[in-house]
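Chapter summary example.
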Amino acid sequence: MEGIDTSKEAINIDLALIKSCLRLINQTVILSKQRGETFTVSENEELHMLISKIDKELSKIKSNIHYDSNNTMVR
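The structure predicted for these 75 residues follows.
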């Protein structure tokens, strides 16, 4: 069984896919809000939990790459 491709190219492809997915989700939320839907925690607990998990995972990634708030990596 082959392992997971952990090359920088594979990571960049994965990040591009994640970025596209997040944009799609955001556009869906914007359209839903324009139609009058609200996104309170009580009505959308699963969505809020997922966003919280994504935020935690992004924080882990940032710490692993020594992310700088100026969008540069510390070398």
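To summarize the output: The helical segments are 8-34, 45-65.
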